[in-house]
Amino acid sequence: MKTLIITLCTAVLLWNCQSKTETKEQTAVVERDTLVDGSTSRTALDYAGTYKGTLPCADCEGIETEVQLTENGEFVKKTKYLGKGDGKVSESKGKFEWKPDGNTITLTGVDMPNQYAVGENTLTHLDMEGKKITGENADKYVLRK
User: Fold this and answer.
1) Predicted confidence pLDDT, tens digits, the chain (145 residues)
2) DSSP 8-state symbol, 136
3) I want to staple 143 with a disulfide (CB 3.0 to 4.6 A). Which of 23, 53, 56, 126 is the partner?
4) Contacts of 114 (CB under 8 A, 6+ apart)
5) Within a 10 A sphere around the Cβ of 100, how many other Cβ atoms?
6) What residues contact 98, with CB distance under 8 A and at least 6 apart?
7) Helices then strands, each counted (H, E), the chain
């Protein structure tokens, strides 16, 4: 009887582990900015749309930012410095280009920094070198669709 119970428990554990593994393999998960199935943000995501958020600012309350991306490679970027100046909204338009990795875009014709990592319904503002900003405020550099 003990042998039967041990065998059944082992079978249930093995079945449970295999089910979780299959589920993980079937789900496209971002791992180091590349999707597990080999696709990229450019090929796998519906990136076109409007992204908004308030980015940190060294000498103001924040930079209200809106970036609109189109499927034909054009953008409109609007920024407004909060708590500083006249509250005027600055707007720039142009084309954006995909980096070879297929996960990062560069807005052409605008001042640096001008690179964003494209994620599922997000644009992550990158630093001057095109790297993700880390630290306790890293989540404040994400614009949401």
Assistant:
1) 444 444 444 443 444 444 444 433 333 333 344 445 568 888 778 899 999 999 999 889 999 999 999 999 999 999 999 988 787 999 999 999 999 999 999 999 777 779 999 999 999 999 989 999 999 889 999 999 9
2) T
3) 53
4) 106, 107, 108
5) 7
6) 42, 104, 105
7) 2, 10
Amino acid occupying residue 71? E
Q: Which two tokens stand for residue 104?
A: 């990062």
> Which amino acid is it at 2?
K
- Sign, CA dihedral 63-68-72-74, equals negative
How large is the C-alpha radius of gyration of the chain?
A: 22
What single-letter amino acid sits at 119? G
In DSSP terms, 55 is beta-bridged to 63
